[in-house]
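We modelled the chain as a single entity of 135 amino acids. Its sequence is:
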Amino acid sequence: MVWRPALEARPVRDTPEIVAARAEADRRRTRMIASAEQLQERLSPKRLTKDAWEGAKDKGADLAENAVDAVRSRPIAAGGTVAAIALFLAREPLMELAGNIASKFTSKKPAKKPEKAPPKTPRRRRTKPSTETVQ
């Protein structure tokens, strides 16, 4: 192997194009970092939860406001709807009540009263046979 002397290191001159390119790279790097930080803030779990909660509250408030407006504009229809829902939810007890009332009016025989159980007679106590002998 042959040893050759290394080329002397000379300082590189920055041409105006290189200076402009470095400045542009720094500016874009700064913008990219800022964008990444904004994205990280927007996608944080705390922020996502807060945004979802706010959205749900807004939707709920809008829905309630629309419902109130609908009831104010058509109170009879709203009352009928509430009554229908109440009847639907209470259908089992109402059907049982109607059946009981109908059976009382349609039966030909009067309803029997439950028979009383015969009275219980008191039990006699058993006594122990006496072990004493009589003389």
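As a brief sanity check on the tokenised model: Residues 45-73 form the longest helix (29 residues). The chain has a mean pLDDT of 83.
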